[in-house]
Amino acid sequence: MWQSRAARSLTAMAFAVACSSCLYSRIMYFGQPSLSSPSYFARRVVAATAPVPMRASEREATIGITASSRTSYRSFDELLEQNHTRAFLVVRDDVIVYERYFGGVSRTTQLPSYSMSKTFAAALIGCALEDGVLGSLDDRLVSYVPELAAKPGYGDITLEHLLRMTSGIDFVEDSYAGGALYYTTDLRARMHAYDVKWPAGSHYLYGSVSMQLLWEAMNRRLAGKSVARYFEERVWSRIGAEHAAAWSLDSASSGIEKLFGGFSATTRDHARVGLLYLHGGEMNGLAVLTPEWVRESLTLDPVAGVVQTTDGNVRRGKYQWFWSLDGRSYFAKGYRGQYVFVIPDKRTVFVRFGDEYGDVAWPALFEQIADGLR
Q1: How many structural domains is the chain composed of?
Q2: Which of 317, 324, 361 is nearest to 343 (CA)?
Q3: I want to staple 332 with a disulfide (CB 3.0 to 4.6 A). Which of 116, 205, 215, 313 is the partner?
Q4: Tens-digit pLDDT profile for residues 276-296
Q5: For 359-363, which contacts have Cβ atoms below 8 Å and span 24 or more sequence positions?
Q6: pLDDT at residue 112 above 70?
Q7: Is residue 15 one of the residues assigned to a domain?
Q8: Is the residue at 294 inside a domain?
C-alpha cells in the first residue's frame, strides 16, 4: 500500500487540491513509515521522572562475523550499517556490553517502536487490571464502550479477545486499513468502523484495531487522566527510564494515543521492557508487573499457534510477544525490522532499530551472538 516518496508527492498534490484533509491523501503523501514518522504527528510526552542509568561494561564485547560474511563485510559494524541498522544494543546481566549508532542516530534519539508499542501497551493493561482501572480480562468490551453494542458481534468480545487478537474483527493489517489507522486524525471513528467476521475467541488475526479498542476501554476509566500520563506513572517511572518518551496522537484536537503503534523512546529505554519480563515483572527492586501477568503474557497462545511473519514461522505468546519455534527466545517486533529480543538462558536482551531488515536473519543472528558472548 506504500509508495515511493516521489510518487506520493505527485499523487498527494492532486488530492490536496480537492481534499486537503482527506485520509487517503494523507496516506499517499506520508507513504511508507520511517524512523522519522513520529515527527508527522502531535504527541504526548512521557517524562522520565525516576531515571536509573544502565551500567555499561568497562570492556566492550567483541562480536565477530562468520567466514561466509567476511566476503561481504570487513567487520560486524559494517554488517550492521550496510544492512540499514541505525541502533544496535546488547545487554547481558543488566549491563550494556555492546552499543552502536549509525546515520545520525544517537543514545538520546527517540525511535519509533511501531508494533513494539503493543508490548509496552500490554504491560500497561496488566497494570490497569492490578490497579482496578480495568475489572477483568473477561469483561465485555461493550461494558466499557456501550455504543458498540449495536454492532453485530461486538457484544461477545472480551478484553482478553482484544489483547490476544482473537476478537473476530475483520481488520486486515497489511491493507488500506492499516495505513488508515496509522494516519487518521479521528481514531475513535476509525476504530469503530469494522465489522466482526468470526465468533470471538475462535480465530486469530493480527490487527492493530484490537489494541486501540483496549485504549478506549482504559481511557474511559481513567477519570480524565490521559493514557500517556498513566503509562508514565505506572510503567515508565518504575522501570527507571533515563529519557523522556512519547505517544503519538491522532491529532492535537482529538488527543488519542496510538496505543497500537505510536510509542517512541531511546534504544536503551526500549531494552527495559525486555529486562522487565526477563526479571519476572521487577525492575530496580520495584514491582511493576505481577509474576502471574508475566507468565501469562509469555504463555503460548493455543488459538494463534504458529504464525507467519517476516521472520518466518514463529509462535505467539498470549499478550503481545512472539516466540522462536524452538522456544528459546521471545521478542517484540516492529515494522521494518525493529526488535526487542530476549534470550532467557543467556540473560541477554538485544535491541535493533533500522530503516529496513536488510539481508540479515536477525533472530538467528541475535542467538548466535548471545552464544558467543563471554
Answers
A1: 1
A2: 324
A3: 116
A4: 999 999 999 999 999 999 999
A5: 359/83, 360/79, 360/83, 361/311, 362/311, 362/337, 363/311, 363/324, 363/329, 363/331, 363/339
A6: yes
A7: yes
A8: no
